[in-house]
Write a structure and sequence with these properties.
Bound molecules: iron/sulfur cluster
CATH architecture of the largest domain: Alpha-Beta Complex
Strand content: 15-25%
Helix content: 40-55%
Number of strands: 15
Shape: globular
Radius of gyration: 27 Å
Largest sheet: 5 strands, mixed
CATH class of the largest domain: Alpha Beta
Distance between the termini: 62 Å
Length: 493
């Protein structure tokens, strides 16, 4: 068995993912999504700019070898020569370590032998004795993330352990370089023991081929290449992770009570769950399961009766949705659907920045439109629109009074839906809700992350089909918001 840095990273993110990477059928993997390719490209750009800014004089080990042992040997040769900075080195240990000197905590896992492979982005020379002479090395990992996540630290500790073993020193302090190119040393006193526990568990699972159970968590599974495979299993099992609100800890508790499927959760009395998760959560979970089983929306028991106050209406109403490019901190499309009931007029206004520099211009166009319909409520879905209005107001120095007045017209439909109804959906995203009530996007299977990729392609190629696709998607988001609002009024009435 080969324990790689990538396997370890995946294990920390999702144990099942590392299992499937070893044992899964490659034909069941999703094809590579455009958005992931973009992320990979950004990561490479980030590494290139870090090298340029901090380590322009690196050396790469000789290439052309076919075995990990030979590649590791080439890296070791550079270390023995005392090269200052080694880029794309390979660390390999075979039959990990049966005998380990007392200064060196071993990665040896009880009863198992396995090989280790690590490819730290950089190995940096520092003073201090090692088997090479009066110098040694420490590893650097470069990541696009903004925070030093636990999975980064575990992998950094893994590199430190392998470097320590190779150069016959205690594992050197590894360093993370994150998105802002800040350097972050990893505390090995804390992370080496965690590494050893993680390796032990991970190798036990892999060597004994124990397949971890599916647990669909939107945040974690969204970009995973096993998503379709896992989702199909979860659906066939009526898995509880498909019920919004069932977190991993609540799931364990439910299993302990003998509640294993959505149907059994729907049949469970909330009183039995309330002691551990509280009355409100227990009620909500049971009703959520009931809604799914019956495929029927349920009115929230704490719903305020005054619908007009909850969802104001006007002859002219505006439906608002944004497309953004987080990497550039840019909101490049402010889409507004204007609906006039008396004339049945519907006009879509896509305020689109064709270059990042045009953001200020589209902001002004947006303000001109919304200010010319002072009585029109502005419907949107989730907080992002409100946060963006505040950000753009600050950035382009729009008077604060004007922003505050504008925000009083904003109505967050996500909040309105979640506080007044329980729908038979797996998530309360606009897409899930609108699909359930019968709205269909013209381009199926597209998400906001695809737009991020399209905009990137537009900037690179100047091909307008990318822009047209984004505008079409954004218009459908606005129309879905309109559709959802109408459904909610009818349902609550
Ligand atoms: S889809 Fe989710 S549960 Fe399945 S392997 Fe990926 S992250 Fe893990």
């Amino acid at each position: 068995m080969l324990l790689t840095d990538i396997l370890l990273l995946d294990y920390k993110r999702c144990q099942r993912r590392s299992f499937l990477n070893v044992y899964g059928d490659p034909l069941e993997r999703n094809s590579e999504r455009d958005f992931l390719l973009k992320l990979r490209q950004e990561s490479q750009n980030h590494i290139a700019s870090t090298l340029k800014n901090f380590y322009p004089h690196y050396q790469k080990p000789e290439s052309g070898f076919t075995t990990w042992e030979d590649r590791a040997k080439a890296t070791e040769n550079l270390m023995a020569q005392g090269v200052n900075c080694i880029y794309q080195g390979t660390l390999f240990e075979s039959n990990l370590p049966i005998e380990s000197p007392s200064y060196q905590p071993s990665l040896f896992v009880d009863d198992y032998e396995f090989n280790c492979l690590g490819k730290p982005h950089l190995l940096i020379k520092q003073s201090g004795n090692s088997k090479f002479g009066d110098w040694s090395y420490y590893p650097i990992s470069i990541h696009l993330g903004r925070r030093p996540k636990p999975e980064y630290k575990i992998v950094a500790a893994f590199y430190a352990q392998l470097v320590g073993n190779l150069q016959k020193t205690v594992p050197p302090t590894p360093v993370l370089i994150l998105r802002q190119q800040n350097h972050y040393p990893v505390d090995l006193e804390q992370w080496l023991p965690k590494l050893h526990d993680t390796v032990q568990e991970c190798m036990e699972m892999l060597i004994q081929s124990q397949e971890p159970e599916v647990f669909i968590s939107r945040q974690r599974c969204n970009l995973c290449h096993w998503y379709n495979h896992c989702y199909a299993i979860a659906q066939s099992q009526q898995h509880l992770s498909l019920v919004p609100g069932v977190t991993p800890s609540r799931y364990q508790f439910l299993l302990g009570m003998g509640v294993e499927t959505v149907e059994s959760l729907a049949d469970t009395s909330p009183i039995n769950m309330a002691e551990v998760m509280g009355k409100e959560v227990a009620n909500k979970l049971q009703k959520q399961a009931l809604a799914i089983v019956n495929n029927e929306a349920i009115r929230h028991s704490r719903f305020p009766e005054n619908i007009k106050r909850l969802i104001p209406s006007n002859d002219i109403e505006l439906y608002f949705d944004i497309e953004a490019e987080p990497e550039l901190n840019l909101d490049y499309l402010l889409g507004i659907l204007l609906v006039e009931s008396s004339t049945q007029r519907e006009i879509f206004y896509p305020f689109l920045a064709e270059t990042p520099e045009a953001e200020g211009e589209i902001w002004q166009q947006f303000l001109d439109l919304v200010n010319s319909y002072q009585d029109a409520p502005i419907f949107h879905f989730s907080d992002y629109e409100v946060e963006t209005i505040k950000r753009l107001g600050r950035l382009y120095e729009t008077p604060r009074g004007q922003i505050n007045a504008l925000l009083t017209r904003f109505i967050d439909l996500h909040h309105r839906v979640t506080t007044s109804a329980i729908l038979p959906v797996e998530s309360y995203s606009l897409k899930s809700l609108a699909n359930w009530i019968g709205f269909e996007w013209r381009d199926r299977g597209i998400g906001g992350d695809q737009c991020v990729w399209w905009y990137d392609q537009w900037l690179k190629t100047g091909d307008r089909t990318f822009l047209n696709s984004i505008v079409r998607y954004n218009e459908d988001d606005c129309r879905a918001t309109f559709y959802l609002k109408n459904w909610l009024i009818e349902f609550l009435d």
